[in-house]
Design brief:
heterodimer; A: alpha+beta; five-stranded antiparallel sheet; 6 helices; about 40% helix; B: mainly alpha; globular
């Protein structure tokens, strides 16, 4: 077949037809995948809730709670009429690369049972460690070198677990005078994580009143954010640990 | 058959889009923070490349010369959007890490470049082979780069711990490390090639 010449009629017809076909194909695939996309979002949320509220046979009630003008979704877990715990879907806008979303589970005494990170865009290998950094330390799997040469390097102990914490004062990283060790070379991500946790504390315990001195210390710490930015970009300094 | 193999090897090794032609550097540098990420991005691009090459080769005589670029872009963008929807639905965890870079496949110069220089002049079968060769060549390059960065940066390959993570050089996981690692890989490949 000979190639169509580039006159106005041919060009208009061909472009229109291609665009219509493309639109049809796209709407077809949109319909095909729509349900699955929604289902996989819901699945992810449901498994996160199950992870942070490890009770059998609970009934979950959902409600919205207003914290500092932001509306957070709260999942209350009941067995019969007894409230077993609360999961809060919380967030922080101070992440290194945008918003962080997590679900935090609390028991009846407002202590943290567990957390699960739903969504984060932190630097791979640094901020992404938040997924398990703030849980109790587990023995890491042996690396190939350790297996081959029969030795084991003890992992350095750290005070970074938020599990079991309840909030008398807002949680903060040890660099800001707090009790939680930040992720090595990812102080900004760690602060953002604790910011999200603190927001969740406010959602479960509305009477909570943190005095202004603690917020003053967070204000102060913002001054060295730029320094920390540089640290994160060049991979962090060793002294930070 | 001999011709098909030649076309395949041409894209896969002889004119490898990343190591020899240095095309499509944005996803190459942006998504290779680990071997698995690099491989997923490479396979995603390979899918788009094969589909768009075939369709463009089918339609090559129906598309008037003066509007061929807009037509190609519409076709490529359609396949990229389909891929994006399918990944969201069936591979949500990979989509979460590659997210931003998937729509950018539309403007990846490899895809439009192969459409222009190969699919517009050859038959459907050879165009598909060309897409496969280039796509897998790109996948190979991204996987190698990702594995190198992951190993140097975190002491792992495909998430398998090779040596202690605390001895890794974090800079290789970050953007500057991508440039350094790519530079060395290109140098090594070209040294081997000119021998």
């Amino acid at each position: 077949m000979k190639k169509l010449t580039s006159n106005f009629r041919n060009m208009a017809v061909v472009l229109t037809v291609i665009c219509i076909l493309a639109a049809l194909l796209l709407s077809l695939f949109f319909d095909l995948t729509k349900q699955r996309i929604e289902a996989s979002d819901a699945e992810k949320r449901a498994s996160a809730i199950a992870e942070v509220l490890p009770f059998d046979g609970v009934r979950i009630e959902t409600e919205k709670v207003l914290v500092d003008d932001d509306s957070l979704t709260v999942y209350r877990a009941f067995i019969g009429d007894k409230e077993m715990g609360v999961a809060v879907e919380t967030f922080s806008k101070d992440g290194f690369n945008g918003e962080i979303n997590l679900i935090v589970g609390f028991d009846a005494d407002n202590r943290i049972i567990n957390y699960s990170v739903l969504n984060q865009k932190e630097t791979p290998g640094l901020g992404t460690k938040m997924v398990d950094w703030f849980k109790p330390q587990t023995e890491s799997k042996k690396s190939l070198v350790e297996i081959l040469f029969h030795f084991q390097v003890a992992s350095t102990a750290r005070q970074s677990s938020v599990i079991g914490k309840s909030a008398a004062v807002p949680l903060s990283v040890s660099k800001d005078g707090g009790s939680i060790d930040a992720i090595t070379a990812a102080t900004i991500s760690s602060r953002a994580f604790l910011d999200a946790i603190n927001r969740a504390f406010k959602a479960v315990n509305k009477e909570i009143e943190w005095d202004s001195t603690s917020s003053a210390s967070t204000m102060e710490s913002e001054n060295d954010t730029i320094v920390n930015n540089v640290e994160e970009i060049i991979g962090g300094d060793c002294n930070e640990e | 058959m001999k011709n098909s193999i030649k076309v395949f090897l041409n894209g896969f090794i002889k004119e490898n889009p990343t190591f020899i032609l240095l095309l499509g550097m944005c996803p190459t540098l942006g998504t290779t923070s680990s071997a698995i990420n690099g491989m997923s991005m490479g396979l995603a691009t390979a899918f788009v490349l094969i589909c768009s090459n075939m369709v463009i080769s089918l339609l090559k005589n129906l598309i008037p010369d003066k509007v061929h670029i807009p037509c190609y872009i519409v076709i490529i963008a359609t396949f990229v959007s389909i891929l994006e929807l399918c990944m969201k639905a069936y591979l949500p965890s990979i989509y979460a890490t590659l997210g931003l870079f998937i729509p950018l496949i539309v403007v990846n110069c490899i895809v439009l470049g192969r459409a222009e220089s190969f699919a517009a002049k050859n038959n459907v079968w050879l165009s598909a082979i060309d897409g496969l060769g280039n796509g897998l060549g790109f996948t190979l390059a991204l996987t190698l780069l990702g594995a190198m960065r992951e190993l140097l940066g975190t002491g792992r390959i495909f998430n398998y711990a090779v040596y202690l993570e605390s001895y890794g050089t974090l800079v290789f996981v970050l953007a500057p490390g991508a440039f350094i690692a790519l530079g060395f890989l290109v140098a090594i490949v070209n040294k081997l090639r000119t021998k």
